[in-house]
């Protein structure tokens, strides 16, 4: 069985993150796990819904490092 995990990073872009989450939820293939990384936004981001794991960086590390931070959080069945 294939599981799908989506990692979404954001930094001071709550409106775009909300739009991205809506798009993720509207996909044909159901997503099993959504991880949102708030990369030290000035206004902390709180994703809507309880189906999201939120990771908040205390200082901005950039998109690549933010994604790498949560790689151990996701799992692979491969």
Write up this protein.
The chain is of the alpha/beta class and 78 residues long. It has helices spanning 14-25, 63-70, and strands at residues 5-10, 33-39, 52-57. The chain has a three-stranded parallel beta sheet with strand order 1-2-3, with helices on both faces. Strand 1 (5-10), helix 1 and strand 2 form a beta-alpha-beta unit.
Keywords, separated by commas or semicolons:
single chain, alpha/beta, 2 helices, 26% helix, globular
Termini separation comes to 10 Å
Give the SSE string.
Answer: EHEEH
Structural class: alpha/beta
> What best-fitting shape do the alpha-carbon axes yield?
globular
Computed CA radius of gyration, to the nearest angstrom:
12 Å
Helix content: 25-40%
In percent, how much strand structure appears in the residues?
15-25%
The overall strand count is 3
Whole-number average pLDDT? 88
The major beta sheet can be summarized as: 3 strands, parallel
Number of helices: 2
**Cross-sheet strand order for the largest sheet:** 1-2-3
Can you tell me the residue ranges where pLDDT is under 50 for at least 5 consecutive residues? none
Which SSEs are present, and which pair or pack?
Elements: E1 5-10, H1 14-25, E2 33-39, E3 52-57, H2 63-70
Task: Give the structure's gist in a few sentences.
The chain has 78 residues and is α/β, with parallel strands linked by helices. The chain is 26% helix and 24% strand.
